[in-house]
Amino acid sequence: ETGVTQTPRHLVMGMTNKKSLKCEQHLGHNAMYWYKQSAKKPLELMFVYSLEERVENNSVPSRFSPECPNSSHLFLHLHTLQPEDSALYLCASSLGTGYDEQYFGPGTRLTVT
Amino acid sequence: AQKITQTQPGMFVQEKEAVTLDCTYDTSDQSYGLFWYKQPSSGEMIFLIYQGSYDEQNATEGRYSLNFQKARKSANLVISASQLGDSAMYFCAMRGAIKYSSASKIIFGSGTRLSIRP
């Protein structure tokens, strides 16, 4: 596999469920990111990980819990979500110099019922 | 505060014509970077082109070029000889002064939906 992969591609969950989104990058990058893309809103940065350490939490509710066990893998654990959390969740990675572009995965389309 | 503005929510262009997508930005940082991404209906954000604030020449990548006018704070994307496969959402994005030594923080505009007519 090449690039950035995300699983699952589609997820429907109830408000009481617990699920996890997975992101894997095969680019040898050191930084990883979670974004939320809602309809008619700009892309929102949620979390930034650099060398497996969380360096930014952009005022994200605690029902979203990220985990970065190593520089190639990033998870987003979801619990007791709200319908307004329905969105496309995009993972990205970058080399880690601070100047470089980010490469995105295909996203997980999440629907909360 | 940093801000990216894309004033064209949607555009229709005839195949093989050139198209310009507008982007203006606001920042107080002296050093910054500007990006353009393409998002097809499949959802993946595809990196197209990058321009650094100190780059003297406009960036080009194949059919893509970035018309960078620093004094006007604009970074328009020009696509030459448009193709049907160019139909997608296009996002302008900006990275400000380096905040972390090993990660980049990018903010995105609201996007322009480009539709190419055959």
The main β sheet of chain B shows up as: 6 strands, mixed
What Rg of chain A do the Cα atoms give? 13 Å
Task: Report how far the terminal alpha carbons of chain B are from each other.
Answer: 41 Å
| Strand residue percentage of chain A | over 45%
Structure class of chain B = mainly beta
Q: How many distinct beta strands of chain B?
A: 12
- The geometry of chain B reads as globular
- Assembly state: heterodimer
What is the β-strand count of chain A?
11
What does this structure look like?
The complex is a heterodimer of chains A (113) and B (118). Chain A is built from no helices and 11 strands. Chain A starts with a strand and ends with a strand. Chain B is mainly beta and 118 residues long. Chain B is built from no helices and 12 strands. In chain B, strand 5 and strand 6 form a beta hairpin.
Layout: helices, strands, pairs:
The complex is a heterodimer of chains A (113) and B (118).
Chain A: E1 4-7, E2 10-13, E3 18-25, E4 31-37, E5 44-50, E6 53-57, E7 64-70, E8 73-79, E9 87-94, E10 103-104, E11 108-112
Parallel strand pairs in A: 2-11
Antiparallel strand pairs in A: 1-3, 3-8, 4-5, 4-9, 5-6, 7-8, 9-10, 9-11
Chain B: E1 3-5, E2 10-14, E3 19-21, E4 24-26, E5 33-39, E6 46-52, E7 60-61, E8 64-69, E9 74-79, E10 88-95, E11 106-108, E12 112-117
Outline of this structure?
The complex is a heterodimer of chains A (113) and B (118). Chain A has 113 residues and is mainly beta. Chain A is built from no helices and eleven strands.
Keywords, separated by commas or semicolons:
heterodimer, A: 113 residues, mainly beta, globular, B: 118 residues, 6-stranded mixed beta sheet
